[in-house]
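REQUEST ID: PR-0412
SUBMITTED BY: lab tech R.K.
PRIORITY: routine
TASK: structure prediction, single protein chain
INPUT:
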Amino acid sequence: MRKITAYISSTVFYAIAMTLLVFIALDFIFGLISQLEKVTGAYTALEAFYYMALTVPRRLYDLIPYSCLIGCLAGLGLLASTSELVIVRAAGVSVKRIAWIALRPALIFIAIALLLGEFVSPYTEQMAENRRHFLKYNITQQAPQKVWNREGNEFMYVNAVLPNGVIYGLTRYQFNDQHQLETASFTKEAIYQDGYWQESDISISFLEETGVRNETIASRRWDTPLTPNLFNILVLAPEDISMRNLHYYINYLEAQNLKASNYSLAFWQKILQPVATASLVLIAISFVFGPLRSVTMGQRIFTGVVFGIGFVLLQKLLGPSSLVFGFPPLVAVMIPIMLCFGLGIYLLNRAR
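STATUS: complete
OUTPUT:
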């Protein structure tokens, strides 16, 4: 039994690994071509390659679930095409036992994805975006980093954020309770020190009944709950933030009485990604024992790609729908997973 377990597990493991290798190689090449089209000034071809290298952990995190799906289809399909699965079942190994054996190597990749998503990709992604941003744009001018935030009646926009507690191009808009703009200020640079931000070189416009009054000051203190860590979170897209930082930022938004639906959706997607990957693996296993038992390898891989695309589209449809229609993000994340588990269990029960 140990030899059977080791043989099936190793076959599935190598199939997933090769699938992931092919996916990441293609994704890297096409991504690099896209970045080379944006080469300008200090952002050279070498910097474009360095940017792509820093984004590899995030790309691996995104591709592992679908690599597990197609890898399991390919690995088990290879065993089925050579009648080795038939021999294993004839030896008294149940379908459920084979399914568990095939799931075990996928769990290794699920663990790798968890570690990458929580401890590696958020930091390498931020390094990549910051480096590209500072090479492509003048940090003292408007640039497309899009860091907006709201705190009570104040809205703020930041041109650029450095990981070491320095921000550039801070614009603050202060409104009254009647939603009328009272003051607008622009700060060239702000440095975080001893629990507050020290702004320097500030231009302030006061909107008064008699007109607009402009004032320039050298420095001022800005007391705010916004820390460098929160600003670093704002730089990244919700799906690129670690679960710990997502939870931290969701609590901050709720303390400010602001909606956190977008970040809650990303949080549940991340925390349930291992379950989603397991559901895709279960689908792959059930397909091999069910409708894809006697088809060619190319048909199995094509089916896996189509099913993976369908899973992604359903996720992308239900996620924004939860934000628009107001139902819990957890429900939006769970629906595709439960559909996969339901279909997989149904097909496996028919195969017994």
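NOTES: The radius of gyration is 26 Å.
REVIEWED BY: pending
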